[in-house]
Amino acid sequence: MQTVIVPLIPKLPTLLHARDEHATWALTVTLLVGAVITPIGGRLGDMYGKRRMLLASMGAVALGSVVCAVSGSLLPFLIGRGLQGLGFGTIALGISAMRDIVPPRRLGASVGAMSASLGIGGALGLPVAASIAEFVGWHVLFWLCALAAALAGIGIMLTVPESTGRAGGHFDSLGALGLAAMLTCLLLPLSMGATWGWGSPKTVGMFVALAVIAALWCTYELRRPTPLIDLRLAAGRPVLLTNVASIATGFAFYSMQIMPIQLLMAPTTSELGLGYQMATAALVLAPSGILMFLFSHVSSWITDRYGPRTALALGGAGLGLAYAVLLLPLTTDVPFTWWLMLIIACISGAGLGTAYAAMPALIMRAVPVAQTGEANGVNALMRVIGTSTSAALVGMILTWSMVPVLDADGHTRNVPDVSGYLTAALISLVACAVAALVALAIPAARPSPVIEDV
To answer: pTM score, two decimals?
Structure first.
């Protein structure tokens, strides 16, 4: 659902009869809704049942996909994309449900595969969406999304039992509204800052409002007997450091989504461009999703023997290696080719699979069973914040470095120059180093009551 829209973004103004700046909301609204629902959905799953919330998530995705499929204008399309965003909490809910139903000896591998599926779907969704949109039609793309969500919902209904442990208490509605306002004031200017202007009153005002709302929200949550998010638990060193590493990893992950596809699709008349179409370029990068899945099981093996913090550190280092390889054609005479991009995609997929699979293991070792959904929801939110920050910062760097070139048809296109890619790659490499070093700083803990409770 996150990447299915990417091949359509350049065409949306024409397809939906909308202005360019308004069409970008098709991506932004899903991100905002997904970020808000992820921790809230985790908390609701702890209180009212994870199976019930999983079915609600799939129902929202199916409904939103149908709305998008029948839309011919921007407003209903944005409503559909917002409903699709309600499915983003599925990962955290699924991980929490697995803690209840999966045998102890299979828990690590199962949770790792579920966590890595967040990246697998994004990696495989891009070429599938590009191919369907190019050769079949964009309406069919969303009908298939609706079918996939409906089949997933039926599968959950038939196979996933309801969780027995419930957190109890009352849902913190005011805390949920405060969290929604806080995330909106953070993610909206990060997403739209380049359009509004980073120094514009609207952008600066939202960041100021973020600081005020965050202070009031934290004070309120700390005084609640049953808060939406247990800030004392989140501030504990194991959870806090895991979330910091998640932000850094999410940043590096999304940078690797932004830069390679642009390099592959840039005209051959540019410094590094290979001139591929979207579907072909996406296929070059698709193996990263396969490597993510395979290395989620490798991560489970590392976690069993050396602990999840080692797996997370190795994942960050592996992702850093991918950026080091990317720097070769940017700093030396090594030619930029499709097979080099394929190698980079495979290395990054392996690193991401290892890192993403280790994060839930670290979280579940540090929190009580009744707060698994909440804690995993917050951790998933940290990844969203990392990806949003990457989209804003790397997007801004690449935009500032744009130079005009002629494509094969003789049309002028603006593409980033080498300096833009070099700066973005170096910053992303630093993010990988931060993720690895922070992971090593997480306290080594004995297996907590996770296994015993299961």
So the answer is: 0.84
